């Protein structure tokens, strides 16, 4: 192999007949691995596209946002240590959403925390990515059956690129999810980087709840109430008023008898 070259260079000293060939050097380039290179292109020139160069730069410098609401964040924090060393993938944790392009939702997302999560996602610059980490983030986990304040899936609030199941996922699984995200970034096309339209979203742009009018009117509720209460229940106020009138009439009769 020739030094400082792209392809393999083969030097044929002898042909099949045994005749020696002087300085017969032929470059052998695989056209499948390098489709943009041909046999005329010099070996010192690298041909690529602007889209591939942009994707390579972005996948090598993914900056995640430090966001954790539950025990899954402990596993994510262990990646910063020297044992796993996620800096080798170009990940630099940031505390500001305006400086991050990746958010890893590590932990349970509650109804009270949902507007803050949507606000953080909207403050991140484009293009941005989301990794849903843990069973509680993806489906609600063990809180999905009897909890009134847990969001059953973070994808109802923000679009998710990679789902990472587990309770909690291991640091090796987080690295695998980051590798899959890097592969997705490498295949992106510039025209496809359109802001995803969220179809089903619980919160508006201003992060306020909409007051929806009740579908049941007051008359319908009274009908349903009387159907299940047979005989009708008398109020204590009416009973007290009747007894008070009966007691107030007795002293008047005694005074008349005395007269």
TrEMBL record:
Names of the cofactor(s): [4Fe-4S] cluster
Superkingdom field: Eukaryota
Subunit structure as annotated in this protein's UniProt entry: NDH is composed of at least 16 different subunits, 5 of which are encoded in the nucleus.
Cofactor mode of binding and number, as noted: Binds 1 [4Fe-4S] cluster.
InterPro entries in the record: NADH_UbQ_OxRdtase-like_20kDa (IPR006137), NADH_UQ_OxRdtase_20Kd_su (IPR006138)
Catalytic activity reported: a plastoquinone + NADPH + (n+1) H(+)(in) = a plastoquinol + NADP(+) + n H(+)(out); a plastoquinone + NADH + (n+1) H(+)(in) = a plastoquinol + NAD(+) + n H(+)(out)
Protein name in the entry: NAD(P)H-quinone oxidoreductase subunit K, chloroplastic
Function according to Swiss-Prot or TrEMBL: NDH shuttles electrons from NAD(P)H:plastoquinone, via FMN and iron-sulfur (Fe-S) centers, to quinones in the photosynthetic chain and possibly in a chloroplast respiratory chain. The immediate electron acceptor for the enzyme in this species is believed to be plastoquinone. Couples the redox reaction to proton translocation, and thus conserves the redox energy in a proton gradient.
Chain residues that bind [4Fe-4S] cluster: 71-72, 136, 167
Assigned keywords, A-Z: 4Fe-4S, Chloroplast, Iron, Iron-sulfur, Membrane, Metal-binding, NAD, NADP, Plastid, Plastoquinone, Quinone, Thylakoid, Translocase, Transport
EC number per UniProt: 7.1.1.-
Location of the protein in the cell: Plastid, Chloroplast thylakoid membrane
Membrane topology term: Peripheral membrane protein
Organism (species): Manoao colensoi
Principal subcellular localisation of the protein: plastid
Similarity annotation: Belongs to the complex I 20 kDa subunit family.
Name of the encoding gene: ndhK
Gene Ontology, cellular component aspect: chloroplast thylakoid membrane; respiratory chain complex I
Keyword hit for Chloroplast: yes
All copies of domain NADH:ubiquinone oxidoreductase-like 20kDa subunit, residue ranges: 71-181
Biological-process GO terms, alphabetical: aerobic respiration; electron transport coupled proton transport; photosynthesis, light reaction
One GO MF term attached to the UniProt entry: oxidoreductase activity, acting on NAD(P)H, quinone or similar compound as acceptor
Enzyme class at the top of the EC tree: translocase
SUPFAM superfamilies linked to this entry: HydA/Nqo6-like
